[in-house]
Amino acid sequence: MAYLEIILLVLAGLTLFLFALNYLSDGLKAISGDKLQGWLKTFTRTVFTSILTGVVVTTLLDSSSAVIIMTIALVNSGALTFRQAIGIVLGANIGTTFSSELIAFDIGKWAGVPMAVGLGIMILARRETLTQWGQVILGFGMLFLGLFLMEEAVQPLKHLPQVVNWMKGLAEPWIGALTGAGVTVLLQSSSATVGMSVVLAGQGLLTLGAGIAVMMGAELGTCADTLVASVGRTKAAVRTGLFHLLFNLLSITLGLLLIVPFTELVLLISKQAAVGRQLANAHVLFNVLGVLLAAPFTSRLAAVFERWVPDTISPPKRAVMSH
């Protein structure tokens, strides 16, 4: 019965967390209207501004997948070029780390406050904009309540040897990464996977090394829906989806090969912090380093992808010879 109670409570927390992510994203989209697409088109003239735009928009929407899928749609329509899209994709990888830093604050017990405030605004508001802001605040509260439910549910698992031993197995980098990728594909949210990892690390169920491996896997799993979004689109849109996949794949492979020195670097930077905070910091550091390594080579990378997936050119018509 104890197992069933744990499973049901984790399921309730996870469902609420995923619902809150979508609810929050919808609220922010409603507030911004068409401005987000306008920002993507306006502030992408250089690599730096493209990356910065990707960071800001992804932080606002709390979903790198949503931003990259929006970018693929804009590339498909011709509103953005593939080269502009590269910077946005890189920036989205950094922007998605904001939620893990927020989750690491461990403020789940206060979730009722923003929920009550948000609901109160929605009930009393006379203007649609205020109602939308109420939705955003309520969404934040539900997000933290979902995490709090999962955190409370997994506490008894610390005393179960089978669970502890399985969690220790995730410290094997490739196993941890495959688990993170699988969970992310299943949940369709890298934020949920990393969020759960931060919670489990905070409860002492995941070591920092295991959490980092799962986090890296989550970065790969999030490519699934962006790849699906690029199917059947223009060649430029397909290139955008492929770039997202290959960039994440290469950075994750490098990260897993160097996971020991990377973990030591994280410990050096945040050795006084709790394990959950260390994992959140590792998420930021991993994505920032990946972008810093790739940013100087965006023009060359764009040229390579344009050769691999060239735009379709109709063959010249042959002249008909009279006999």
TrEMBL record:
GO process terms (BP): sodium-dependent phosphate transport
GO cellular component, one term: plasma membrane
UniProt keyword annotation of Electron transport present: no
Keywords: Cell membrane, Membrane, Transmembrane, Transmembrane helix
Protein's UniProt keywords contain Membrane: yes
Membrane topology field: Multi-pass membrane protein
Main subcellular location: membrane
InterPro entries on file: Na/Pi_transpt (IPR003841)
Molecular function via GO: sodium:phosphate symporter activity
Cellular compartment(s): Cell membrane
Record-annotated membrane-spanning stretches: 6-25, 46-75, 107-125, 132-150, 170-187, 194-218, 245-267, 279-298
NCBIfam families xrefs: Na_Pi_symport
Protein name: Na/Pi cotransporter family protein
Species annotation: Larkinella punicea
